[in-house]
Each structure stands twice: as C-alpha cells, then as structure tokens.
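Posting this for the archive.
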Amino acid sequence: MFEDLEQLVCKLGKERSFAPLGSFGERHGSWELTLYKASDGLERFVSVALTSLPAVRAEQGLSYELEVRAGAEEANRFLRRLISQLQISERELFHAAVRGRIEHSLRSGMEFADETRSTDLTESYLPTHSL
C-alpha cells in the first residue's frame, strides 16, 4: 500500500520538480513522505501523512486519515498550511474517485508551495539556546 501511494506522490512531484526526501517513514505516529525543491531563494515542501484510525466496524478494515500540508521556509521564517484532510479506508485507497481526490490535494499543495513568496513567510522558528 505505501509503495503504491509513494509512487503516486513521487510521480506527481516530479511533474513540478519536487523530489522526495527519502521514503515513507514513521513520524509522530504517522507515516510521512515529504517532497522538496529549492527555488527563488526559498525551500518549498509538500508533506503527505497517513495516520491509522480505529475501525468503526470490523468489516470496514483499516481506515486512515491522509493529510497534505505545504509551505516554504527561508532562514528562520516559514509558512506551513494544511491543504487537505481525507478519511479513507484501506479498501478505497486507490478507487478512481479517491485517487482523484489525493491527486487534487497533492497538486493543490504543490501549487501553494510554488506560489509562496518570501513576504508570505509570517511564522518564525523558536530561537536556539544553550543550557
């Protein structure tokens, strides 16, 4: 399942010159894959996170929340936005309609990241300090 989703994410990313920063990996209880590119002085990204949800009924099988987030960063400033949240079952993960929703979310995320300008970076990283 992860392999199929990873292939889809990487294929769509390549269309807009985004490259994966590795494979799907566990991060904070989700399986996450991040696409990245540097352009116009900004580091742009789109992250896809897949989180297991409890099944409501046994016959449903596994259910997931798929989140797409996108943004950009420069030095100590950044912008990160939730693009979409989809709740899907394992069985429907690659039905044509669901696949279309995933593709739309990824394309929207890449468009958001590509259109972000330095002046849009309104959030700041916490300053580092030593103990």
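The two ends are 44 Å apart (CA to CA). The helical segments are 2-15, 96-115.
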